[in-house]
From TrEMBL:
Pfam families: Peptidase_S26. This is Signal peptidase I. The active site is at S42, K84. It is found in: Cell membrane; Membrane. GO terms for cellular component: plasma membrane. Its main location: membrane. Keywords: Cell membrane, Hydrolase, Membrane, Protease, Transmembrane, Transmembrane helix.
Amino acid sequence: MTTEKTKSDQLRSIFKTIIFAIALVFMIRAFLFSPYIVEGASMNPTLHNGERLFVNKLSYSLHDIRRGDIVIIKDEAKNKHYVKRVIGLPGEKIEMKKDQLYIDDKKVSEPYLKTNRQIANNMDMELTGDFEPVQIPKNEVFVMGDNRLYSMDSRNGLGLIDEKRIVGKSEFVFYPVKKIRKTT
């Protein structure tokens, strides 16, 4: 009888452990980190189609959104997610003149565009077309893809992004394994 009770206790303990582990994974995925798949070329060469990202959902509970952050944006109407880079923050005036970003009338460097800028120059094109000044309202951000020639973003389809639509900040690529890296 002792052996049967011991086996029963062991099975019950294993079952509780499995249930706890499943609940823990669900909670972590729901509230802390979640995987996302990059779809399309709008963030090349920073991110590539098919790469898998871990996204920190808690990040913006701890600090404000920052320029340069790579974020996941939820589009509930289309049941889609987009991966973009934050370019302009609430209260700022943003514009593009002769392929140069200006925020509040000051030139801003975008070193992550070096490769794509060279490609555009070789095609005798500007990477980012000019646009008139945009004043970013409170609680919204302006986003663009790094591959500006092939990106739907705040300039041409997504519009300004309400901060509530931002799922979280991309932290690192975890697949393919040979290309594991931070994304910021």
